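Private note to self, pasted from the team thread so I don't lose it. Backbone tokens:
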């Protein structure tokens, strides 16, 4: 590997151990480990956080380890977003894994190669390891395709892209204007959902970081690379999770190692079929359903 890895952990030793073993097998040259502080009101959490931090730094291969361990609890939004910012202050590009995103080994090489291939292509902001929907959805002949949707269960990016991120959506009053929203989200069901979500984020009603990243990409017409074969399994569903309390029906329950050399795309073109399926699943839009059926039949 050439790329550095940012490992985001908190209070779950079991899932952290599994993901760390995958990182250990890949042997990145630099490992950044960021951890939020324990919540004082949660009994036993300080001990679990300490154990998790120990597991995440048990490096036994040639590797530089850099840590960002918070003494106080910042919450999901601030802890994760500031950790990613910290990572990109030190690295121009790299791979990001949370403590419940278990990667196939080929995920590391997939990101490594594509980070280099597209590092100066400003149309592309993210490389995702999660596919979410069956590979048959896309007609791409390559091992990956481009979409405006980008799952963050195991991903990679560049400093040039992350510099546009705003955890507070300070420009939401302008972004939420109808003439702007209509251009970014042309389908009504998605537009309504995103308008509601963005308003909640702007009013600090949701403690998270990832939706803001999605808005940053959408409002800059950025593309994400998604593999045809899923390479990440989320092992974090359960009562001790921050957000993934119940199993997401869109998540895939197995990952696949890509074999041989990557087959590359000759063009950078958005896969509108995958986008239609993603939006249909996420926002239940009849317009997307009609468009998808027409495409698949003809």
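Design output:
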């Amino acid at each position: 590997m050439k790329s550095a890895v940012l490992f985001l952990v908190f209070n779950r030793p079991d899932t952290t151990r599994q993901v760390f073993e995958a990182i250990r097998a890949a042997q990145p040259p630099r490992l950044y480990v960021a951890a939020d502080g324990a919540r004082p009101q949660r009994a036993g959490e300080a001990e679990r956080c300490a154990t998790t931090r120990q597991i995440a730094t048990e490096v036994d291969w040639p590797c530089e380890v850099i840590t960002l361990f918070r003494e106080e609890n910042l919450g999901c939004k601030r802890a994760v977003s500031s950790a990613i910012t910290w990572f990109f202050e030190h690295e121009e590009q790299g791979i990001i894994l949370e403590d419940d995103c278990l990667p196939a080994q080929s995920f590391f090489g997939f990101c490594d190669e594509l980070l280099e291939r597209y590092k100066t292509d400003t149309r592309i902001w993210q490389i995702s390891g999660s596919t979410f929907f069956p590979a048959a959805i896309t007609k791409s002949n390559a091992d990956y395709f481009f979409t405006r949707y980008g799952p963050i269960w195991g991903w990679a990016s560049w400093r040039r892209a992350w510099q546009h991120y705003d955890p507070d959506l300070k420009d939401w009053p302008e972004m939420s204007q109808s003439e702007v929203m209509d251009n970014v989200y042309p389908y009504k069901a998605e537009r309504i959902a995103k308008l509601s979500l963005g308003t909640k984020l702007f009013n600090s009603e949701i403690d998270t970081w990832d939706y803001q990243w999605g808005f940053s990409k959408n409002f800059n017409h950025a593309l994400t690379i998604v593999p045809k074969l899923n390479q990440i399994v989320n092992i974090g569903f359960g009562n001790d999770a921050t957000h993934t309390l119940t199993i997401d029906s869109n998540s895939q329950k197995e990952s696949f190692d890509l074999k041989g050399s990557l087959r590359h795309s000759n063009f950078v073109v958005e896969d509108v079929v995958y986008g239609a399926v993603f939006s249909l699943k996420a926002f239940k839009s009849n317009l997307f359903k009609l468009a998808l059926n027409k495409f698949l039949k003809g």
